[in-house]
Amino acid sequence: MIPVRQAGASPPPALRRLQALGPLTAGASAAVVAATAETRVVRARRELLVEGRPIATPLLLLDGWAARVRIMSDGRRQFVGFVLPGETLGHYGFAQPVASVTVTALNEVRVCPLPDSEGHPDLERAYAISRALDEAHLMAQVIRLGRLDARERILDLLLELEERLALAELAEDGGFTMPLTQEMLADALGLTSVHVNRMLQQSRRTGELRWNGRQVALPDPAALRAQVGRAATVVTAGD
Amino acid sequence: MIPVRQAGASPPPALRRLQALGPLTAGASAAVVAATAETRVVRARRELLVEGRPIATPLLLLDGWAARVRIMSDGRRQFVGFVLPGETLGHYGFAQPVASVTVTALNEVRVCPLPDSEGHPDLERAYAISRALDEAHLMAQVIRLGRLDARERILDLLLELEERLALAELAEDGGFTMPLTQEMLADALGLTSVHVNRMLQQSRRTGELRWNGRQVALPDPAALRAQVGRAATVVTAGD
DNA sequence: CGGGTAATTGACCTAAGTCAACCAATGTGG
DNA sequence: CCACATTGGTTGACTTAGGTCAATTACCCG
């Protein structure tokens, strides 16, 4: 990890996401901005957290994508889930001294220590919602792997990613930018990269998906959601 | 749900599990026993929690098995996970007003309101570990569905179930009793019941598995764990 | 230009699904 | 106590989604 001097940056997507989860007071927003003073950059393929190793401090992902990954002794690899800008890492709301999975940066990533919610109930509330979403994403992953076919898995995941990015305003309706290779997609979806490629081509031909390099667009998300049996994720506030 | 008068019962497996997660003071144990005064019986196939419906009160499962289940509009069904005696339901340690999945009783089940941990830090600690285990089980499910083949999925799940039951002392080394039909197993493992049946037969022939009605035994768990790439789940205390 | 990563394609293979019987155990009403 | 219905397990014949292997092409990037 390379410590970085990160002076005045542009309005961070991570902050926008937290604000989207539940409006933050000026004080809470300031606390988040303050935490970014200790931003670190982690290069692609480096590990943010290692399974079984103590978690130094919970993190807030400012920029870039990471994945929770488990690798089997024979080399099979499974992405358990992704971590997108504005999402948190190693933050459980309860005792959890060691990481339960390895988290790897998929591209160059910026992280900072998770802003302390002490004295900011609104921030704590945003974290609580964030944790609930984490769990929802994990369950969605189980459904995808258990009961969707290849095409549905791909589209369902892309829909989810778009929804999640939208919270941080990282998805325009022209689509979004995604650092995933087809192989990473395969590792997330329990498929092979060859098959992912074939299905992508097919979806491109039918026009339900546009995919150019790192740019992805789903022209008719509503129709796809229906086809894939994906319910819109509802975030009910809580308390 | 049928309220029940539940007088002095045998030493409940649920209590044994909580004690196994972290020794409880006499007071905490008493609180758990006290909570069982309000035990309810839920019949097989009835729902304990319905997705999207408010959670009246978090529950402790005393007896019987339940499953978190999601059903797609076209009838496909996926068990997201199981709930075994001593495990908790609708208990998140943070705001979560509505259930995120439906939980269905797989056989006749007894539940009681989750004993309040107020004033019992040791009980709270047991709950925290329980939540961490929940998450671990969910991740294990993702690995199974994403990267294991049918035989591995079955054996891995059975190994996990045995480990979990052992916490409540519900697994002798002669095996354990399991209310799951082959079809339920299929719904948990992303397979069809026909295929589950074939794989079970094969595993029975090789002797790696014994399966008689509701009785299951894995004669050599250590060997299987190695074959399936299953790491023993380590529960580190926490704080 | 050279070397590495990512995407693409074809030929072929196999794990798992589908469909359809059939059987065994259990339970139910009469 | 029996005829019948139901549920769960078992089996065979056949199909298919997705995997494997291997080669080829398209990009980068220094």
Explain this structure to me?
- Two copies of one chain form a homodimer.
- Helix content of chain A is 39%, strand content 20%.
- By secondary structure, chain A is α+β, with helices and mostly antiparallel strands.
- In chain A, the strands form three sheets. The first copy, chain A, has a five-stranded antiparallel beta sheet with strand order 1-2-9-4-7. The first copy, chain A, has a four-stranded antiparallel beta sheet with strand order 3-8-5-6. The first copy, chain A, has a four-stranded antiparallel beta sheet with strand order 10-11-13-12.
- In chain A, strand 12 and strand 13 form a beta hairpin.
- The longest helix of chain A is centred in the middle third of the chain and has 27 residues.
- The interface between A and B is large, with 43 and 44 residues.
- Chain A binds a DNA duplex (30 and 30 nucleotides) through helix 6.
Count of runs of 4 or more consecutive helical residues of chain A: 7
Structural class, from helix and strand content of chain A? alpha+beta
Helix content of chain A: 25-40%
- Main pleated-sheet profile of chain A: 5 strands, antiparallel
Strand content of chain A: 15-25%
Taking pLDDT < 50 over at least 5 consecutive residues as the criterion, the unreliable ranges of chain A are: 1-8
- What's the overall average pLDDT of chain A, rounded? 91
Return Rg of chain A in Å: 18 Å
Outline of chain A, from the CA principal axes? globular
Quaternary state of this entry equals homodimer
Total E-strand runs of chain A: 13
